[in-house]
Amino acid sequence: IATNAVLSATLTGIPYKQLTVGVPKEIFENEKRVALSPAGVQALVKQGFNVVVESGAGEASKFSDDHYREVGAKIQGTKEVLASDLIVKVRAPIYNSALGVHEADLFKTAATLISFIYPAQNPDLLKKLAEKKTTVLAMDQVPRVTIAQGYDALSSMANIAGYKAVVLAANHFGRFFTGQITAAGKVPPAKVLIIGGGVAGLASAGAAKSMGAVVRGFDTRAAALEQFKSLGAEPLEVDLKESGEGQGGYAKEMSKEFIEAEMKLFAKQCQDVDIIITTALIPGKKAPILFKRDMIESMKEGSVVVDLAAEAGGNIETTKPGEMYVHKGVTHIGYTDLPSRMATQASTLYSNNIIKLLKAISPDKENFYFDPKDEFDYGTLDHVVRGTVVMKDGKVIFPAPPPNNIPQGAPVKQKTVAELEAEKAATITPFRKTMTSASVYTAGRQLPELGSVVVDKGDPPDLETSPCTKLFCC
Ligand SMILES: NC(=O)c1ccc[n+]([C@@H]2O[C@H](COP(=O)([O-])OP(=O)(O)OC[C@H]3O[C@@H](n4cnc5c(N)ncnc54)[C@H](O)[C@@H]3O)[C@@H](O)[C@H]2O)c1
Prior knowledge:
Elements (H helix, E strand, L loop, with lengths): L1 H11 L1 E2 L4 E4 L14 H10 L2 E5 L10 H6 L3 E3 L1 H5 L3 E3 L6 E2 L4 E2 L9 E4 L7 H9 L3 E4 L14 H20 L7 E3 L2 E3 L3 E5 L3 H12 L3 E5 L3 H9 L3 E2 L20 H15 L4 E4 L14 H5 L6 E4 L16 E4 L2 E4 L9 H19 L5 E2 L12 H8 E4 L2 E2 L20 H11 L2 H13 L4 H11 L12 H4 L1
Parallel strand pairs: 2-3, 2-5, 3-4, 5-8, 8-9, 12-13, 12-15, 13-14, 15-16, 16-18
Antiparallel strand pairs: 1-19, 6-7, 9-20, 10-11, 17-18, 20-21
Helix pairs in contact: 2-11, 6-7, 6-11
The chain binds nicotinamide-adenine-dinucleotide.
Catalytic activity: NAD(+) + NADPH + H(+)(in) = NADH + NADP(+) + H(+)(out)
GO biological process, one term: NADPH regeneration
GO molecular function: NADP binding; oxidoreductase activity; proton-translocating NAD(P)+ transhydrogenase activity
């Protein structure tokens, strides 16, 4: 009878009311986000789940313990929360120095973890989680297909980063964004140049435009220029014709000639604009340097530059990643934790992403159940489930096999962790070894893109320089 019960649970899942979801306090340095907002907890409680939240988990996001209690959560300590059936986190589990134990070591056997994971960059963590027979859903691996937009935490965090970049720039700029004619005098509008029209760049364009600035945008992809235009920004172009369109709509590395041509364009713009926000990234590569020191030094006193690519090396030569400082009269903002600096908003959207994901992958009214299949069609829910689940009952199932019916231009198959590790070991020099281990902890760009670019161009994956866009991702 016992075997039958286990078998039937495996086939049909476990009733929500028998499961506890744990929301721990994030312990990564300066991390202010929390994985579930009170509204998210309420949705899970309504579904039938029991929810436990660590005391103070939402404090930095302005969600008090009482908020969580009011919607039906129990407030508990670190150890109790991490011993839940489902653990929902923002950051991948790390060593808890206050308790002298790794967070994953406090998980119960066969728990489910939902979090940013970056499986390719974190093989040791995967090993640890495998020992505990954990099932892992990686928020950074949710396939970026239309059906999954509601669970795309990379995009929701990039959106916040783009907005916050404008708010910070406005805060450090000495003038209005909007032009005004007042009795006291005529005020010209601020001119904002945005490089890169991905999720973050377009969010910046929208925010700067709504504040009344004159906004210009540049991207190597024609589609992004169109999007700039639709937001009311002026798209800039270079004479050289070269498409920046890479695999799956992502950017490809541009030729030396193209980079030179765009830098020539930017050099002129530097003498005209007041604010520059850069977001140019190439999946799996170091961010291209697009603004040299002399270009920045040619900007007007009081100008502001925000380098959202800072963690991937930066688009601006004078950026100091993680720092804000003034160089020759130009304020440089190189913060790499912008979503966490808008913690309430970031937590709310991240929480929504998680709730939507859970509802989509386990649509049953009574039981929690999902089944990653190895055969699935591109853009379907099966694609989302298989892509997101990177470990099932302790078995690493990352990366997912390629879907059937891949439309032309969609990302190609990812490489396995073992393949990437082997290639890395073969190419790494002792000199760069230390650098690599450092970048592993800060790296964040999702692997599908890394894989797609690497496979597409036939290059070895350069994990040493692989951009860490933790800012956009975790
Ligand atoms: N669910 C979905 O369908 C989904 C979700 C998210 C993003 N997307 C799409 O994926 C694409 C990439 O979005 P992202 O936010 O991840 O981008 P990203 O953060 O990887 O890159 C930012 C931008 O930098 C641009 N760039 C690269 N090199 C440049 C250079 N030398 N000069 C100027 N610009 C340069 C890129 O073209 C890109 O638009 C977009 O088309 C976006 O709409 C789709």
